[in-house]
Amino acid sequence: MTHPHTHAPVRRLGERAPFGTTPSGETVEQIEIANANGVRLAVLSYGGVIRAIHVPDRDGNFTDVALGYDTLEGYVGDTAYLGALVGRVANRIAAGRMSVDGRELTLARNADGNHLHGGMRGFDKAVWSMTSFERDGAAGVVLSHVSPDGDEGYPGTLRIEVTYTLDDSDRLRVDYLASTDAVTPVNLTQHSYFNLHGADVGDVLDHELTLVASRFTPVNEALIPTGELRAVRGTPFDFTAPHAIGERIGDADEQLRLARGYDHNFAIDRASDGDLALAARLTEPVSGRGVDVYTTEPGIQFYSGNFLDGRAIGKGGHPYRFRTGLALETQHFPDAPNHPSFPSIVLRPGEEYRTSTVYHFVVRT
Q1: pLDDT digits (tens, 9 = 90+) for 143-159
Q2: Which pLDDT belongs to residue 15?
Q3: How confident is the model at residue 6 (pLDDT cuts 50, 70, 90)?
Q4: Residue 213 and residue 342: Cα distance in Å, rounded?
Q5: Which residues, in sequence order, are CB contacts of 37 under 8 Å at separation 6+?
Q6: 321 preceded by cis ω (within 30°)?
Q7: What DSSP letter does each residue of 218-279 carry, written as one string?
Q8: DSSP secondary structure letters along 92-108
Q9: What are phi and psi of 255, to 5 degrees?
Q10: Which of 221, 236, 296, 300 has the most CB atoms within 10 Å of its CB?
């Protein structure tokens, strides 16, 4: 178990330190950033991974609430996308096939015949360029990557810049920017897993979740959306008021059976497109730790760690077992190109892909 500690010395930018070498010989580095309150963030150039997030409980005790690994080898072998940036297209695309402007695309198939989270070697396995900054009472990291034409089957050269900013209000802001020289689909997300007890303490079933979403996208046996936007009311998917994650996860519900729990995209109720809107509110009631998620995206994937099985050995030698972490992935809807009624993920030359998500870490009394 991680031993909580009180405030570390206040600092902004930690040392840029080596974190290993990939099997192909690329050097990977880690940068730590901190705010005036002692909240700390560790970021890797490998996969743009957020490796650690240290936040306080209601007694001022800090612990790391992000699942991850002690070594680069853990991330190289990782299949759960722990803490990683995900793309070119997050989530699933049925059979790895889609049509864009009448052009049929065939993408890498890496999940039971479907395309998942960018393919065999998505952005989570790339070494990103990484620089740090400090300005306006905040510190952060800028990550950049160029995805070449044909990468995992995607057309066009895609240039991506992702900025992590930690401010003194304990907000972690993630800003995504991308441009392309050919028509291509883009749907980026951040795949951190949270356990607000601490990254090495039990499961997340007692965490209380609110989702500002009155509809979700049900899935088929392959976890591909059917195209329906289904009302959550009267189902175990109704988190419009707070519920413990474990409260209904075992209900006799076909959607829960298919996904072995929650692994579904929720359509965020928002007043207007493009603005940051509250999407999710998560609370761990014993410690009081919480995180509120705001995003410009139309959807959020709630994943209750159903495929964690103890084989991934995390920080401190701790195995990540069934439901020991959860992800709240802001995104456009899965398999969007194959469902014309879903918001489009097509990016064209001359356009900019811009989205933002904020994770506001709070203590609830």
Answers
A1: 999 999 999 999 999 99
A2: 74
A3: very low
A4: 15
A5: 56, 168, 170
A6: no
A7: -B-TTS-B-S--EE-TTSTT--SS-EETTSSTTSS-HHHHHHTS-EEEEE---SSTTS-EEE
A8: EEGGGEEEETTEEEE--
A9: -65, -40
A10: 300
3-class DSSP state of 338: helix
Residues in a beta bridge with 209: 243, 282
- One-letter amino acid at 156 equals G
Q: Are 236 and 248 in contact (CB under 8 A)?
A: yes
Question: Distance between CA atoms of 39 and 89, rounded to whole angstroms?
Answer: 31
Helices (H) and strands (E) in the chain, counts: 2, 28
Tokens of 122: 């998505």
Structure letter (DSSP) for residue 31: E
Q: Is 271 exposed, middle or buried (0-12, 13-18, 19+ CB in 10 A)?
A: exposed
| Three-state helix/strand/coil letters over 275-307 | CCEEEEEEECCCCCEEEEEEECCCEEEEECCCC
* Structural domain spans, the chain: 13-363
- Per-residue model confidence (pLDDT) at position 214: 98
Cα 35 → chain centroid: 22
Catalytic annotation, residues: 191, 329
pLDDT of the residue at 56: 98
Residue 7 has pLDDT above 50, yes or no: no
First to last CA, the chain: 24
At 243, list the tokens. Answer: 């519920």
**AA identity, residue 254:** E
Give the span between the Cα atoms of 222 and 243, in whole angstroms. Answer: 27
Distance CA 174, CA 357 (A): 5
82-141: per-residue pLDDT in tens?
999 999 999 999 999 999 998 999 999 999 999 999 999 999 999 999 999 998 889 999
- Rounded to whole angstroms, the Cα distance separating 90 from 164 reads 18
Read off the pTM: 0.95
